From TrEMBL:
Organism: gut metagenome
Name of the protein in its database record: DNA gyrase subunit A
PANTHER family: DNA GYRASE SUBUNIT A, CHLOROPLASTIC_MITOCHONDRIAL (PTHR43493:SF5), DNA GYRASE/TOPOISOMERASE SUBUNIT A (PTHR43493)
GO terms under cellular component: cytoplasm; DNA topoisomerase type II (double strand cut, ATP-hydrolyzing) complex
InterPro entries: GyrA/parC_rep, Gyrase/topoIV_suA_C, Topo_IIA_A_a_sf, Type_II_DNA_Topoisomerases
Pfam families recorded: DNA_gyraseA_C
Gene Ontology biological process: DNA topological change
Molecular function GO labels: ATP binding; DNA binding; DNA topoisomerase type II (double strand cut, ATP-hydrolyzing) activity
């Protein structure tokens, strides 16, 4: 019988499927491509508040806000610095989120960009990761300002100042193209360093003070 012959059964099923394809089949209505399977890694990372610390000797780390709790009067506080080295201390400390863009400005007039979640997480007493392992800093290049940015808005600006008294205002949106390899934020003369950067709405009053 037909049912006893597996080969005949498979041929009948094949013929039936081909007949159904001719009768009901149509062109594929969806396109399969690499783009449709790609996913932004940021979509997989929860947005949460973080504290970022950069030490004087160039170590960086991020911590969750859970590591910092309100202290009552007379509380002893908690250690949140960069390790146990006596000759090191926190030079930059700021609040951000894992989804914010972090702009790192250096004394050489360059700016680098990382996402908050790209900064390695470490405990309160850990010194963190050497920042030269995250950013391609040159010999003698040092972070002088760090600005966390959620969006690159047209109505916001970066105000920069150098040790020789040069100032510059640039649209924040111009830094949207900054990546890990960095770009030039301000052109500097010989022996001139970028010493300060602030985010402004373009209408704020800026006060500059000299050493004397």
């Amino acid at each position: 019988s037909v049912l006893a012959d597996e080969h005949k059964v498979m041929n009948i099923i094949k013929d039936d499927l081909l007949e159904m394809k001719k009768k009901f089949g149509d062109e594929r209505r969806t396109e399969i491509s690499m783009e449709s399977s790609e996913m932004d890694i940021e979509d997989l990372i929860a947005e949460e508040d973080i504290v970022v610390t950069i030490s004087h000797q160039g170590y960086i780390k991020r911590q969750t806000m859970d590591n910092f709790r309100s202290q009552k009067r007379g509380g002893m506080g908690k250690t949140g610095g960069s390790g146990k080295k006596i000759d090191d201390c926190a030079e930059h400390l700021f609040l951000s989120t894992t989804h914010h863009n972090i702009l790192f400005f250096t004394n050489k007039g360059r700016v680098y960009r990382q996402k908050g979640y790209e900064i390695p997480e470490a405990g309160r007493t850990a010194k963190g990761t050497a920042i030269i392992n995250l950013l391609p800093l040159e010999q003698g290049e040092k972070i002088t300002a760090v600005i966390p940015v959620k969006e690159f808005l047209d109505e916001q600006f970066m105000f920069m100042a150098t040790n020789k008294g040069t100032v510059k205002k640039t649209k924040l949106k111009d830094f949207d193209s900054a990546r890990k390899n960095g770009l030039v934020a301000i052109n500097l003369d010989e022996k001139e360093d970028l010493i300060g950067v602030e985010l402004t709405d373009g209408n704020s009053e800026i006060v500059l003070a000299t050493r004397n």
